Queue: 2 jobs
Job 1
Amino acid sequence: MREAETNARRRYRARYVVNATGAWGPLTAAFGGIHSKAARIRPGKGIHVVYDRRLSNYAIVADSIDGRRVFLEPWQNVSIIGTTDDDYFGNLDDVTATSEEVRYLVQGIARVFPSIRTARAIGTYAGVRPTIYDYGPDEDSLSREHLIVDHAVDGAEGVFSMLGGKLASYRLFSQEMSDRLARDLCPGVACTTHEIPLPGGEKIIDPFRLAGEIETTPIAARRLVFRHGTRANDIGVIAREESFANTIVCPCEPVTEAEIRYVVRNEGATSVADVSRRTRLGLGACGGMRCTVRCAQIVAEERELSPRESIAQAKEFFEQQARTRLPVIGTVQARQEVLHFEQMHSLFGTRT
Amino acid sequence: MSATVLVIGGGIAGFAAAATAKEAGADVSIALGRAGATFLSPGVLDFAQRGDASPLTQIEKSVFSLLDGYVIEPTELLTIAGTSRTADGRDETLLSVSALQEDGAVAVIGRTASFDSRYLAKAFSATTKRSFVALACDAIQRYADERHWNDAELASRFDEEERLAWLARILGEGIQRSTTKIAGVLLPNILGTKPGVAARLSAMMKLPCGEVVGTSNTPGFRFLEARDRALARAAIPVRRGDVEGIDFSSSGRVRVTFADHVADVSRVVVATGGIVGDGLRYVPSEIESAGALPLSSRATFEPSFRTNAPLPIIAPGIADRPSSLFGEPAETFRLSLTAKPSPFLRAGFDRRALPRGILVAGAAAGEGTTWLEAFRSGCAQGSNALI
């Protein structure tokens, strides 16, 4: 294995290896000398378009032009429309939404929600489903079931691949996998997954009390509790004890400086992009204009990176996010995008 | 009878055109959009480095002297990204590293959501040739609630003389305690929403004090104030509101229609900004286009006001690419922090094909992506308005 952060190569030995690499499953299996057909999936690309704020308090379902179900849904602080489902034959490491996929979704949603055409789209995201392989049916008719493959039949004793499944069923899937391993490793022990709360879910935290304690806005505190549950208390400690750590770095979401420091220290975030995935920093209406540079500085400080590395990280995140917005920017948003870049050129001194 | 000129647009190009035409003896008025209408109000259009700051002409000098709080000279500025950059001029409130004495460190002071004096002092020391020190980092907030204010809100406090004196006292104490010799003081974008605050602070401190280049809109507020003072100084009357239409008559007069009145002039200078400044619009608009929501290379442009004569627009980079159906998708456009400015910005009215009576200045003519360029374009068109 190669560590992404240090580039160091290491060897690990284990009695059991679980291949839970989603759409990369066949590739990972192939690394172990297992024929990729033994862990075969049919990659299905899906995209979402993100709109500023909640356009509706309810999820709205519509039929797309080819009869598929698509939806508009309030989600976190934003609204999303989705989703497409198309066979994917491209590079798994570079999956982005295209403007024709966006048009397809907007057309479908506009039939029941016409104002979607004038709503402000602020981004897209794209992914690939690790659907279980089947030749013949169209994408929508494929099974969403999950499957555990024991590669003993392929001559790889102790290697398993987890194929298929959805976000909605991930806990069940993991439980089945753990049960399978437990059968050999600790026979007779009953599963307790259903009795253990997820990390942070131990008890309910009052966001308004927390807001008072760390002197932040009730909205910031509510979002913090929503994202971290009881761990919001640990973030509260940083916010109280470290100078100016209750400052709101990302005003769109909002995200405080304490939360950024917490996810770098405790959740393995190593870059602005990692912090963004953990906290939604930079994913709001301003497209990271106000928070990217500062967040990169906090990450650099926590990880003892140089100022130049911090600047490089900020640029990378900003350009990457702009790339996810391009397929969806309409004629008005294009203007906003130019403003974004002018401002960033001014900060980095990169104008040519 | 002297020429009557109406300038549309209150950005730097519009101001420069109006002031130049006035100086040349025309009967000038200027139409200003709603609050926040100018590109400068978010402080985005700045003196980016072009390295071609040829000396100002006599008329440019005289127009420039009307504006409070700007200098034109090659300079090095510090940004909240923790690095320095060059510029052909500056809002006087920004700290110019080039203007500081050779020896001594720059004191970095203040802590806001985007400005951390400790971090920045270290970063500037690493990315520039000078040394920087962080002093008492929470010096700029006087009351607890100010910690949640944005830079522009805080800046309005420092317009007050008493508050500025308070800051000078705190800074003085901090510098006195420091063992390092201090050559200048760097602060976040809080030194006033009006021009001149940094100069007053520098005088009190007997040290150059100034701001960092940030993302705050404080510099934009200062521009609006400087422009309004300059317009008053030059006695140029202001019309408020958006222009709805421009009609050209066979007698050579131009009628400009506002929501509540009509202006009848001999020349109109359009300085409405380009795509970003809302002087031009993409067609078809999102609202009217049936299914073609995302931008594509098939997008073309039209003026944001009605006219009775065609005003051709050129847009190298977008409209010039022939393609079928929806056109080349937007995701193929390169938006990069290292490459040239994006093609979105480069559309403008085609000067060679405009009807008699109309001139265009600044970004509306596809020029003026920096403060100085917009200023020069405005001055040039302002004098052309009398020809």
Job 2
Amino acid sequence: MITMKEVWKTYPNGVMAINGIDIHIDKSEFVYVVGPSGAGKSTFIKLMYREEKPTRGTIKIGDEELSKIKERHIPLLRRKIGVVFQDFKLLPSLSVYENVAFALEVIEESKANIRKRVMQVLDIVRLKNKARFLPHELSGGEQQRVAIARAIVNNPSVLIADEPTGNLDPETSWEIMKILEEINDRGTTIVMATHNKEIVNTMRKRVIAIEGGRVARDDAKGGYGYER
Amino acid sequence: MKGRTLGRHVKEGGKNLVRNGWMTFASISAVTIMLFVVGAFLLLIMNINEFADSLEDDVEVRVFIDLTADEENQSELETEIQDIDMVQTVDFVAKEDGLESLITSFGDQGTYLESLREENPLNDVFVVQAQDPQQTQVLAEEIQTLSYVDDVEYGADIVEQLFSVTNIMRYAGIVLIVGLMFTAMFLIANTIKITIIARKREIQIMKLVGATNGFIRWPFFVEGLLLGVLGAIIPISALSYGYVKLVEVVQGTPELSFLTMTPPNPLILQMGGLLLGIGAFIGIWGSMMSVRKFLKV
């Protein structure tokens, strides 16, 4: 599903974030990306949804090679990839329903389809009864669930999560993880960058550890491996 | 693009105008002032042009025939004038007719001139028109050399001065208009830039969920268009109303009858269309300018 070959990324200011990464992630895999702050985790994630371009090397998602995608076709790629962030990135003036529907509005879905799909995903994240609420009326965990609903409403084949539990307490974090696991069970590939040792050690999945812009460890059922 | 989406863009664009109340007001005012000056200049220049054109058509050489010339001499002179290449028409105005029209032109007060009929002080006159009004001066000089010509009179120098005045006004107008257009465009670009900074997060999210640049740009396009068009409404209505009134006043005042004004129809329609077009153009241009760099997320 996701293949990186000899990927290097040096920022214009000279920071060498990624220094030769080779990685392959299969369809329906669930992968944690761990590593100390500043090790290149964020860049690694950003390369996947084409927020950043590699300086060298190739990245493929499905059949598409990201560096060959024309600037104006990036939106088409983004529709196949769901992205979830630590700070949720919801639009404060829109209701839960509208926030999720937004992702379908931009691809000009019909109203009836939008309604159907939004209600489906709100059901998956168990927020159907709060569809009319505004983001600030929800708890952090609920807001993150809205963000997840928005990320998967397009039926993307890959869901990329950058520290999705970073702002949440342990209990809420587990709620989010359960939902992510459910989504993964439906066949969506999930790549999740995290600092959460407890989660990585308990819900055992493949772990890719990045240090100094390289893959330091890649275990099929590894633990967190860092002492915070 | 589907109709439903267009509806959404228009709604979004309108919402932004309201959301940025004061900046919207400032931009619309800038467009209004700019278009007001543009429109006023336009009306002025059009009228001066028309006035100059009508004067130019009126340019003729009045050839005063020497009082000593008899009829034979006169017809000799007429053929000589007609033989000049540049001449289009030659009309003979007998001194009796000349006096008659002079008296009539004075209206009621003309009766005082009746006594002149006893001893007519006027000359017989040939009224000569050049094929091209620009040749009038050369023509007049040539006629001056013929025999039995007492004097020649022509108004070309006045026309030339008038034309140099219209040219200066035209250039000054263009410079002023371009300057004002840039000011208005800058203000609109700035207004929209501020609205975009406020909506940067929204744009970022739109891009993350796969919105195309076109989709993101549309509401700003609508916003710019509305700024320009709203800014054009006041100057168009004020200038149209003002111009129609002015023409009425000028035509109703005998002392100003020498002023030929361009009729309001279709002039104000053309002016309105042009102002609307300029307003829409700078609105859209200003907004597109400022969106451009925010789209590179």
